[in-house]
Fold this sequence. Notes:
Elements: H1 3-14, H2 18-25, H3 29-37, H4 45-55, H5 59-63, H6 72-79, H7 87-108
GO molecular function: DNA binding
Domain HTH cro/C1-type: 7-62
InterPro entries: Cro/C1-type_HTH, Lambda_DNA-bd_dom_sf
Amino acid sequence: MSFSKRMKQSREKQGMTLAELGRTIGKTEATVQRYESGNIKNLKNDTIENIANALNVNPAYLMGWIDDEPSNEDTIAAHLDGDDFTEEELAEIRKYANYVREQHRKMQGE
């Protein structure tokens, strides 16, 4: 699977819009859309890292160097003492985590 497909799949799994991802990584919605469509192919390493961080995935997964994406549900569950959450609840938790991360970046001046 290509970078663009993995990126889109990961973004949708996080419940993020193109605009939300763009704000998180400091790019426009149109630029993020071009990344996902494959129209921009030569991304800088720091851009790939920013995208991976925003989507809670390993940069190597986005690049196609590894096939296994760590399950966000497993990671979240490990931190929440095994509480059972629906997919919708997990999506809300991910959105909130991304919001907190975005606010932290703004405070750090990124």
